[in-house]
Every structure is written in C-alpha cells, then in structure tokens.
Amino acid sequence: MSALFRKVSQVAVIGTATSIGWLLGYNRSHEKGGANFPAIETVSAASYQGSIVNTQVPDVVPVPSPNAPRIAQIMRFGFPSLSNVRSLNDYVLSYDTRNRIPYWVCEHLTAENVAKNPNVDRAKCDFHEDTSVHQYFRSENRDYKGSGFDRGHLAAAGNHRRSQEDCHETFLLSNMSPQVGRGFNRDKWNDVEQYCRQLTKSYANVYVCTGPLFLPRREEDGKLYVKYQVIGQNHVSVPTHFYKVVVCESSTGELDLESFLLPNVEIDDSVPIASFHVPLETIERASGLLIFDKLSQKKFKKINGQKVGWF
Amino acid sequence: MSALFRKVSQVAVIGTATSIGWLLGYNRSHEKGGANFPAIETVSAASYQGSIVNTQVPDVVPVPSPNAPRIAQIMRFGFPSLSNVRSLNDYVLSYDTRNRIPYWVCEHLTAENVAKNPNVDRAKCDFHEDTSVHQYFRSENRDYKGSGFDRGHLAAAGNHRRSQEDCHETFLLSNMSPQVGRGFNRDKWNDVEQYCRQLTKSYANVYVCTGPLFLPRREEDGKLYVKYQVIGQNHVSVPTHFYKVVVCESSTGELDLESFLLPNVEIDDSVPIASFHVPLETIERASGLLIFDKLSQKKFKKINGQKVGWF
Asked: Model pTM?
C-alpha cells in the first residue's frame, strides 16, 4: 500500500477519534444539568438508552444533508470495500494495486451534474498518472501505448460536467482499465454509460458502481480457467468483463435496481443492453464485493426492468 | 465486504478513538498542575510541542512491550494492506474475497512458539470454514474435494504450537490456498517452512509474510497472459506462485532479509531453496503490497544470504 493511501486511512481514523473526543467533552459539560444527556458514566455504545435512542431502522437510507461532503452523497448506500479508497471531487474509487486498475468506482448522477456545460471541454482533458499511487503499482500512459486497448474510463467523463476540473479528474489513470476500443469502449459500453445519464431524466438520484471482473471459462479439459492479458511494463491487467450496478431513486423515494455485466470484447451494435442484465448476486460473487449493501433488495420496486413481487 | 469484516474495522476505529479519548482525559486532569503536560487547548496532532516530542526516527522499529497484544508483535514492521484483516491468536491474515484465499498472512516465530509441544496434536485439527467471511466469498472443504489440489496452509500449522487452539486456528479455510500436493505443499514448500522454523535457532525473532501470486507468462503470440484454474462451486483461485518474505532479528537487534518466490508446481527434491531467492521488490510489484515497509532496506545486514554493502 502506498504511503499516501496509508495517510488517508490515518486521517480517517483521526477524524473519527476527534469527533468522539468532542462528543465525550460535550456530554461531560452536561454531566449534571442537562435533562436530555445521561451522565457520562452511564454512556457507552453498548448500554441501552431507552427512549433517547431511536431504535427504528429507517425504511430508506436517508438523503445526506446538502452540507454533507460529496463523498457522503456518492457513498450513501455503502462502500463495496475499503481497499485504497480515493475520494475525488465528484467520484470515489478503490484501487487494485495488484492489477493496476480500479476495484470499483462509485458515482452519483443527477440531471444537473450530467447536463452539457459549455464551460467544460473534454478535449482539453489529458490522461494523467495518479501520483498518489506508489510507483510500483501505478499505471502509466506508456503501458497502454501500442497495446491495442483503449484507456477506458470507469467513472465516465460525461458524468462529471459541473467543472473542467471534475471532468479532468476522470482522466486519472487510476480510473482506467484496458478496454477493447471498437465495439466496446466506444460503442456498447458507451451505450450503457449514456443510458445511465438518461436515467437522470426520470429519477432524482442515480447511483452507479462500476468495476472490472476476471471470469473463468471452461476449457477442453473440463476445468475452469481465468485467463487475461497484462499490458505494458507495469503489467496492467485486461479484465475479461465489466459490471455496472445502478440504483435509481425517484423524487418520491422509490428505488429501482439495474445490474449489467458485459464481456470486454467487440459487441455487435444490434445487441440490446438489456440483454446484459444479470442478478446483482452474480456480480457480487464474482467481484468479491457487496454492492450498495446498506440497501435491502426488498426495497426495490423494479429489478432489471421487472416489477418485483415479494411474498 | 462481509458484515463481520466491517465490524472488525469499526472495532479498530473505536479502539483508537477510545485511547485518544483517554489521553485527552488524562491530559485534562493535568491541565493546570503538571509541568510535563501542556494545557489541553494547546495540544493537537499538528501543533509543535518543542522538546517534549521526540522527533528522532529510531534506527530500528522498537520491540512492542511484552504486554502489547499479540498482533502488535506480529505486525511490528507494518501491515502489507488493510483489506479484510483478521487477527487470530497467533497469526494475522488479510482475505481476498475475489479469489477466496488470503492476500497475505503474517507470523512471528520464536524458538519458544515453534518448539514441539506434547500437548498439541496436529492430527486432531480439522479444516474448517471461516464463518466470519460472507457466504458469497467463503471457501468450503467441498471446493477442494476431488480438485487434485491440497488445502495448503499459508500460516503453517507447525509454526503455532503454543496450544491446541493456536494450531487449530491455522486450519481455517481462509488460511488455505490450493497447492500442488506432491513436490510442492508436502515437499519443497514444506522445506521452506521448516527452514523458517530453523531460523529461530539463530535469531531471537523471525517475522514471516506469506501469500499467493498470479504471474503472467509470455505465450506464442508474444503477449503476456495470466492464467490460473479456479476450483469448486465457489471458484477458489489456484495461484501460479507463492511468496514468503522473512525478516530475522538477532538478539543484538541486527536484521537480515530473505524473500522466496516458488512456482505452484511439482519441484524436484534436488533443487535448493536458495535458488528461489528473489529481490523483495519483485514480490512487492507482483503482489501489489509493500511488505515490512516500516523497515528501510538499508537496515539489513544480509539480504538473501549476501552481505550488504551500502555506499
């Protein structure tokens, strides 16, 4: 793990410690007087507090306050993992130091932040190394050069148009995976990305989690093998597949789920993207991640376009 | 990530918070009187404390106090990563939910804890599932059954003989990887494990970090491919290689390093284990981990059996 990633973890821990320290101090000052604050000696995370603690589990994970940091909104339904997490202006990524590509990226799309913005010019963005990643584990432009693969965005550039800087941040190489260009990155995968942006016309909030997969195939000897190419001096892994999981929240708080799994190959234009729908569990088992796991699947009105009837 | 792994992370954070809360309280009680304790208002991690803070970096990472938890001793030279860390009685593991095997396991060997103990009977231990791992990501005995691969310990059973329970904990399936049996797990890999135990005769402390690798090979088309089998219903990945990195500390605090990289194949008995020495950097780049990274490599007197001369 790079020193910088370590630092982020430490900051997180210190942040938590400070808040709890502050809470202790706060309670302490109410030790005798405040009717709503129990004496400090009786307070612990394990002690039953009666009516002052809300023990009802909310039906829907609440929307973070408008003043909350962007990461609280993007990660509202849970972190798929806590490995090398990096929070950017408008998306969050977890970096796989072994494969030199992301484990996952999470985004929060609204009509506002995907709207075309004349001040943002994608053509002015350039692919750049992520210097927060230790040099042993960093992918470089030269790894992709001549490989035959595109530097495929996982957090899509078109989803981050609030500012030039937001757009530019999606060009970090830590947000890229080697993708087949024609028929995939520039075509079918792009269709899925556009579809996600269009969902913001029908839904108030669209939450997207995207990542690579390495899936096995049965070979002639009857056994299952995972096989994938690695490119460049840094051995950047070429995923066999990519997933995209989308949670859509309507303005009235209703939730729908779609999950896509596409092979990293040239896909014919005629294939509808709905044919790549798979159960979320398939993606979770293959990726080793629990995705949007703060949400019970019983919350969803529609899953992969089908109305859900729970008995 | 499983709910239980989440819980472990939370406990760790709360643990840190509590200690800092305690420190705050401690300082507070000295707010006015204690000459050695600055007033609470002036204390923060960022404020310069003059002579009361030791800014000298120690030459050697100090030995944890005998009262420190076992994990502090085992992980003395740093965590290779913080992904799904599980602390057992006598070893620490990081679990790879995607491949259903460890990322790494760390052990601390001394003459005392590897000594034969008549009260510990390995034959009474049985391989058991790790129920702390979410069922999507857990390996099971039936995954290995009929696969042709051994359930290969990464933290070796023979390294943990202080009690029957310590030994039994090494039989958790989260500590296993599929290994070739004859010529590897039962032979050459076992030789490397025995070699590590023998090091406790010459050194006071032996720190071991062990893990799987998935290394590419160049195929006929001139490109590099990673290829490995997955076994069982849970698709447990069969690593192409394993590494073992060993830091040895003499009774006078001198440090030596050895790092081994072995292919997961039948290896002829005549091959000396020293022929599997590789630079630590090779293992670090391939695994995506920085191993024993609290230690500068300049601290080592010998690396892979060779005296080091630093200029």
From this structure: 0.83
The answer to whether the CB of A147 falls within 8 A of the CB of A232 is: yes
Please confirm, yes or no, whether B153 is among the known catalytic residues: yes
As a whole number of angstroms, the distance between CA B70 and CA B63 comes to 12
Q: Which residues of B124-147 are buried (b: 16+ CB within 10 A; e: fewer)?
A: ebebeebebbbebbbbbeebbeeb
Active-site entry in A153, A160, A168, A241: A153
Q: Which of residues 35-64 of A touch B (CB under 8 A)?
A: 45
How far apart (Å, rounded) are the C-alpha atoms in residues B238 and A295? 33
Are A13 and B13 an interchain contact pair (Cβ–Cβ within 8 Å)? yes
ipTM summary value: 0.83
User: Within 10 A of B166 (CB to CB), how many other CB atoms are there?
Assistant: 21
Q: Which of B30, B134, B153, B168 is catalytic?
A: B153
A residues 205..244 contacting B (CB < 8 A): 214, 216, 223-231, 235, 237
Q: How many Å lie between the alpha carbon of A185 and the closest alpha carbon of chain B?
A: 21
Pairing mode, if any, of strands B217-218 and B101-109?
A: unpaired
Predicted confidence pLDDT, tens digits, chain A (311 residues): 444 444 434 433 333 333 333 333 333 333 343 445 555 555 566 655 555 555 555 566 888 888 899 999 999 999 999 999 999 999 999 999 999 999 999 999 999 989 999 999 999 999 999 999 999 999 999 999 999 999 999 999 999 999 999 999 999 999 999 999 999 999 999 999 999 999 999 999 999 999 999 999 999 999 999 999 999 999 999 999 999 999 999 999 999 999 999 999 999 999 999 999 999 999 999 999 999 999 988 889 999 999 998 65
CATH of the domain at A191: 3.40.570.10
**Count of domains forming chain A:** 1
Range of the domain at B284: 2-307
